[in-house]
Design a protein that fits this description.
Layout: H1 2-5, E1 20-24, H2 29-39, E2 57-59, E3 86-88, E4 100-105, E5 122-128, E6 143-151, E7 163-170, E8 176-184, E9 193-198, E10 210-217, E11 221-235, E12 247-249, H3 266-269, H4 273-276, E13 280-287, E14 292-302, E15 305-309, E16 313-317, E17 321-328, E18 343-351, E19 362-369, E20 382-386, E21 392-410, E22 424-432, E23 435-439, E24 461-481, E25 489-492, H5 498-501, E26 502-505, E27 513-514, E28 520-521, E29 523-527, E30 546-548, E31 555-559, E32 566-573, E33 578-585, E34 589-593, E35 600-608, E36 614-621
Antiparallel strand pairs: 1-20, 2-11, 3-4, 4-11, 5-10, 6-9, 6-11, 7-8, 7-10, 12-13, 13-17, 14-15, 14-16, 14-18, 18-19, 20-25, 21-24, 21-26, 21-29, 22-23, 22-24, 25-28, 26-27, 30-31, 31-34, 32-33, 32-35, 35-36
């Protein structure tokens, strides 16, 4: 089965044994929006705008170029008529320039094309160019399409029965697509492979020519990854003599903070601003051409205001190679006198090139200071989870000033199976040496469920503690799962805090162990941070209902304001097993028989079928 090929068995390669598990996935909506925002200032684009394009066609995905109505993306940057590919700078290994287009089994909204299906292959992502005017060309021209592709990268390798296709379109005879190139999966490519496709057939020499890439693979989410980079359609491209004139950024940076943080509450940062600031920044660049003299610099911006510019750093780079450059931040410290609780800064790196494409000579990211801590950069290249009932996961953070922990943001991953009916408990632990110690919220028996919410730009889901928890100093935060189904949380492979911060145990009786999975899981603790009326990301109001009598023996009645909508009610035992489940229309109350239950503590979980709001309360079955 395909899922097995996506799983990393870190201890014993037998599924029946307890283990940490990872799986490839994609984090689409947030990363695409962030990429669009942060790269839109990177140079000037031409020949775009939703109409017919003129030659030469070029896209290296150093900026967001898919079809969109987002005002942050200039219409002249758009090169493609659809938006199911994923424009990102986090999935590839050694891309030609910053940014690639990734094709897999995920829709643009971050949901799989097909839920709960593990044994089919179908067309998934399609990347279709806008019409290109070839009416002035003839078959005697040396008109070629040049592109580069990589299978897997930091994602999941395609299987032998998966395929990447390239098709050409002609409007003749009502319009037809013809396949002109394809490659089967099964062989991950360590580097980006180069392809030249010559256009010879006169049916394509018109004003409405188009080309498209499409992948056939599993439609169950972030699987079977193909990455495309540096695409050119132009006359006069000769494979034997083609040379690049390009020095570019290769990867995105994500933070100017120390201690592994990519984000932290603003009031916490101010307690030791000098100590939390990085002394320097390392830039990742690539020279595709000959020897060049490159001068790099870094700026910190707020809007149009320049707060800092590093010293110029001239350096000669050898041709056709990857290189890094480390620039001093000259003791700069983020400062915003007007900000009381939150602020942000844009960090922009540039160099002085006069090569063919200026947009890839800029790299940008945003340093956020709100009310949460994060180790991850907002992108998930893989997923992390356990496969044991009662399994516990905890990640260490430091609350650097006394504050109140309100809840946690988590990025749950839609991979193959919809596990939104699974349950878990949130847990906060004291620190015992280097491992989790005593539970600080042991009396909290509020059950939560994974939420695959990808509406808008926020794909984290906020879970609020029923009782806020005062903290000061180091602590661990995580969850206890209630079944042996693996529910994957996002794992960012461009940062690497798991080996020193992430711990797990298979059940209540096993020992805590340090994780051996690289990356940083996408779990972000949220603090009060002096914010008077903060509402969390995707924070849906909790359902409110009462249960009486409690304790009860024969029957318990659930009471809530009537709305005549559909709900699901479940009775869950202390081990997390669902004892009873039914759906009902809310007319104000419902009676549920508990006569068949043994004496003990249970939880009643109520979920709205309309908007997925949920709430649970504890009941006691007692025989008088």
């Amino acid at each position: 089965m395909k899922v097995l090929s996506l799983t990393l068995f870190l201890f014993i390669s037998i599924l029946s044994h307890s283990q940490e598990k990872t799986v490839a996935l994609r984090y689409n909506a947030t990363q695409a929006a962030r990429y669009a925002k942060e790269q839109h200032m990177a140079g000037t684009a031409t020949r775009g705008g939703g109409g017919t394009l003129a030659l030469p066609f070029f896209d290296d995905f150093s900026k967001y170029s898919l079809s969109t109505t987002d005002p942050l993306v200039p219409i002249n940057d758009q090169r493609w008529s659809d938006n199911n590919a994923f424009i990102n700078c986090t999935f590839p290994i050694s891309p030609l320039t910053i940014g690639v287009a990734t094709l897999d089994g995920m829709q643009a909204n971050g949901q799989p094309y097909v839920w709960n299906e593990n044994n089919i292959v179908q067309e998934c992502d399609v990347l279709t160019s806008l019409p290109i005017d070839l009416s002035n060309n003839v078959p005697l021209d040396t008109l070629r399409l040049l592109f580069h592709y990589q299978n897997e990268g930091l994602g999941d390798a395609s299987e032998s029965y998966d395929t990447l296709y390239l098709d050409f379109y002609t409007p003749i005879n009502g319009g037809n697509w013809f396949n002109v190139w394809k490659i089967a999966g099964g062989n991950p490519t360590a580097n980006f492979e180069q392809q030249f496709i010559e256009i010879l057939d006169d049916i394509y020499f018109n004003s409405q020519f188009k080309f498209r890439f499409r992948n056939y693979g599993r439609p169950g989410g972030s699987v079977d990854h193909w990455h495309l980079d540096y695409i050119i359609l132009a006359d006069g491209i000769e494979p034997a003599t083609f040379q690049f004139d390009e020095v570019a950024f290769e990867y995105c940076n994500n933070t100017l903070l120390e201690s592994g943080y990519t984000a932290m509450p603003w009031t916490h940062f101010l307690t030791n601003a000098d100590g939390f600031m990085a002394n320097d920044i390392t830039l990742y660049q690539r020279n595709l051409g000959g020897i060049e003299n490159v001068t790099s610099r870094v700026e910190v911006l707020q809007g149009a205001t320049n707060l800092f510019t590093s010293a110029q750093d001239p350096n000669t780079t050898q041709g056709q190679g990857e290189y890094t450059r480390t620039l001093s931040m000259q003791n700069y410290v983020f400062d915003d006198p007007s900000a009381l609780t939150e602020t942000f800064f844009d960090v922009r790196a540039t160099f002085n090139q006069t090569d063919a494409h200026l947009s890839n000579d800029t790299m940008m990211f945003t340093q956020n200071f709100s009310n949460y801590y994060a180790y991850d950069d907002g992108s998930a290249e893989s997923g992390y989870g356990l496969n044991t009932s009662g399994g516990r996961v905890a990640v260490r953070y430091d609350c650097v000033t006394p504050d109140t922990l309100l809840g946690v943001m988590m990025h749950w991953l839609p991979f193959i199976f919809n596990n939104s009916d699974e349950t878990f408990l949130l847990r906060v632990y004291d620190v015992d040496g280097n491992i989790p110690g005593a539970e600080l919220n042991a009396e909290d028996f509020q059950f939560y469920t994974p939420n695959y919410s990808y509406d808008g730009y926020n794909s984290y889901y906020y879970y609020e503690f029923s009782t806020p928890l005062p903290l000061d100093g180091p602590y661990f935060i995580g969850w206890i799962q209630q079944s042996d189904s693996v529910v994957y949380i996002g794992n960012d492979e461009n940062t690497n805090m798991n080996p020193t911060k992430l711990y797990y145990k298979y059940n209540a009786f096993s020992n805590w162990a340090a994780s051996s999975v690289p990356g940083s899981i996408m779990l972000r603790p949220v603090f009060k941070n002096n914010m008077p009326d903060w509402v969390g990301t995707n924070d849906i109001p909790q359902l409110q209902f009462a249960a009486y009598p409690n304790p009860a023996n024969e029957q318990i009645t659930l009471s809530m304001p009537p709305d005549y909508k559909m709900y699901q009610v479940q009775i869950v035992d202390i081990a997390g097993r669902t004892i009873h489940s039914e759906q009902f229309t809310n007319t104000g109350s419902i009676g549920i028989s508990i006569a068949h239950l043994s004496d003990g503590v249970y939880f009643i979980k109520m979920t709205s079928a309309i908007d997925n709001r949920t709430h649970s309360i504890r009941i006691i079955k007692h025989q008088p």
